[in-house]
Design goal:
With about 90 residues, the chain is mainly beta. It has strands spanning about 1-10, 10-20, 30-35, 35-45, 50-55. The chain is about 0% helix and about 40% strand. The chain has a five-stranded antiparallel sheet with strand order 1-2-3-4-5, with no helix packed on it. It starts with a strand and ends in a 33-residue tail after the last strand.
Length: about 90
């Protein structure tokens, strides 16, 4: 992507990312940045379709329960490529 600063808009610093790949899924991505992180992302495809995502109440490096990242395969399921994980 080619990155270009677009200046301030609605209390955000806007960055424009333009794809350098002709076959990219998105031609342009706009990022709205604030001091605490990202507030908005807009993606535009070759057909002119635009998808906007607005971020609110972001928590950066918030504590998480390690149990959220445990996976127990259901019975009668083959698991391929199992790596030993530290306890």
């Amino acid at each position: 992507f080619l990155v270009k600063e677009l200046g301030d808009f609605e209390d955000m610093q806007l960055l424009e990312l333009r794809s350098l790949d002709d076959e990219s899924e998105f031609e342009r991505i706009l990022l709205g940045l604030v001091p605490g992180g990202i507030r908005m992302m807009a993606m535009e495809d070759a057909f002119g379709q635009r998808t906007e995502i607005h971020f609110e109440n972001l928590l950066i490096n918030a504590p998480t329960d390690p149990g959220l990242f445990r996976f127990t395969p259901p019975a009668h399921v083959d698991v391929v490529g199992v790596a030993a994980l530290p306890e």
